[in-house]
Amino acid sequence: MIRQAADREMASLAAIGVTHLDLGCEFRGGQRQVIYLAGEQHKAGVEVRVAAPQGAPILDAALELGIKIATLPRRRDYHPLNLLALLRILPSSPTILHTHDARAASLGALAHLFRRDLTLIHTRRVSYALGQGWSRWKYRLGTLVVCVSREVEDVVRGAGVRRTAVIPSAIVLDRYSRREPGNFGRVGIIGALSPQKGHAQFFRALSLLAHVPKVWVVGDGALEADLKRQAENLGLSEHIAWKGRVESSLILPSLDVLVVPSAHGEGSSGVIKEGWAAGVPVVCSDLPANLELVRDEVNGLVFSNGDPASLARQLDRLRENSALVEKLVSAGILDVAAYDASGMHAAYLRAYASALPV
Question: What is the pTM of this model?
Answer without folding.
Answer: 0.93
